[in-house]
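User: My collaborator sent over this chain with a note saying "see what the structure looks like." That's all I know about it. Can you take a look?
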Amino acid sequence: MTTLPSGFARARRWLRDHPLAFDATLAFCVLIAMICGSFADPGKGHGPTFGTRTPEAFSVLLMVLAASALVLRRRHSMAVLAVTGGLTAIEYIFMDPPAPVVMSTVIALYTVASRTDRPTTWRVGLLTMGILTVAAMVFGSTPWYSQENLGVFAWTGMASAAGDAVRSRRAFVDAIRERAERAERTREEEARRRVAEERLRIARDLHDVVAHHIALVNVQAGVAAHVMDKRPDQAKEALAHVRDASRSALNELRVTVGLLRQSGDPEAPTEPAPGLAVLDELVDTFRNAGLPVEVAGADRAPRLPAAVDLAAYRVIQEALTNVRKHAGAGAKAEVSVVRVGTTAEITVLDNGRGSAAGRPGAESAPDGGGHGGGGHGLLGMRERVTALGGALTAGPRYGGGFRVHAILPIEARTGEPEPPGPAVTTGERR
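Assistant: Without extra context I'll predict from the sequence alone. Here is the result:
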């Protein structure tokens, strides 16, 4: 039961892959049908009778020529229609009763209609229908209203309509396929975009974690080396801070890099992302490193959304790291977190003694006392804030020091970054 359908399917695929062979087979079938039809006498009774007449040699020649032209119907559809139509008209003019050469014209007209546009189909179809119908009515011996003459009009009209319907269906299917392919491409592009955004976010986290903890380790290691001989107790305390900072750095790196794990990896990170809930611990690490930090305001209730909470924490961490590295000896910092309506405002101030020329955005940065440099600290903070739909302002304070001010919307609009305003400074402190 399954052999016959599979055989038809294979034959159909082979004919579709070899259109010339299919057209040759179709032309042969049309020739057989025309020859069989030429043995039928229309008659004047209740229908045609078979075997009462035989086709003339001229009619057989016309049928062979018309069928042969159908082999090229795909490559030269208009020319094949003109040839078959002309041969049909000749048959109607010179032979009575005519042989059914019009069958080849019907196939050629269908091909034209299925491969051209609708206006061309109707123009060519009406012209073919008119010429062949008039030739059959004028030159035939039967009355003009006979079924044979009306059949010419009907069959040519149906060929045009059928070809136009097939063309419309093909165009519809092609449009659906194109939309599906476009949707697939859009999904792939969206997936690639999301992967790129996630990689950028992880890169920001890695930058913040490494910069913060390495700066603290560097400071504490320097203190330990300086007081190792004279005050070993203080050196031990500094080394303990180095150990704590390095352990914290490793833990955060493990959590951040754990985001890159694949679905089949044996273990996934279980520690929560840092946020304002651990702001006191963050501030303590800087205090232990010798930077006095005052938390002037820390409005942390109710809890911010996860993305906003992490961004606020990273902004404070990066700003305090820059103060510790660039503000100079004796600098102090002040941190405030305030909710204003539907936004959270993060402010980090310091009284560093660096000159204005060394601040972010300045053309040059002196070594040591300035806040300038060639890194990407403020650029990373600005990208993180604008990615959530917020704004970041960073620049020197009047009278000395530096100010970092971030405004974060409570409802994060991830993926819709807004360009910074004119007041945003994009210079780098590191």
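A starting point for your reply to your collaborator: Confidence is low (pLDDT under 50) at residues 262-266, 355-375, 414-430.
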